[in-house]
Amino acid sequence: xLQYHVLVSGKVQGVGFRYFVxxxxxxxxxxxxxxxxxxxxxxxxxxxxxxxxxxxxxxxKKGNRFAKVQDIEITIGEPEKLFSSFxxxx
Length: 90
Hints:
Elements: E1 2-11, H1 17-27, E2 31-36, E3 42-48, H2 50-62, E4 68-77, E5 86-88
Parallel strand pairs: 2-5
Antiparallel strand pairs: 1-3, 1-4, 2-3
């Protein structure tokens, strides 16, 4: 199992992007969370196997129809804490 810590920039707040990420994570059997950051970015912590995380990230890079993803920074590591689901955090 891997952990992807992801920072997404662009038009990703106020456009349903976090809920898009949650639905995409559930579809790909990814656990973790997504939240807005005060600097306008969206932060994602995603856990799963590489063969599940890669197609998940391909969809995240495209975004939903209202979002415009400009840049993504991914840090890959080992999970420090395991999650049983994927949540949208406040």
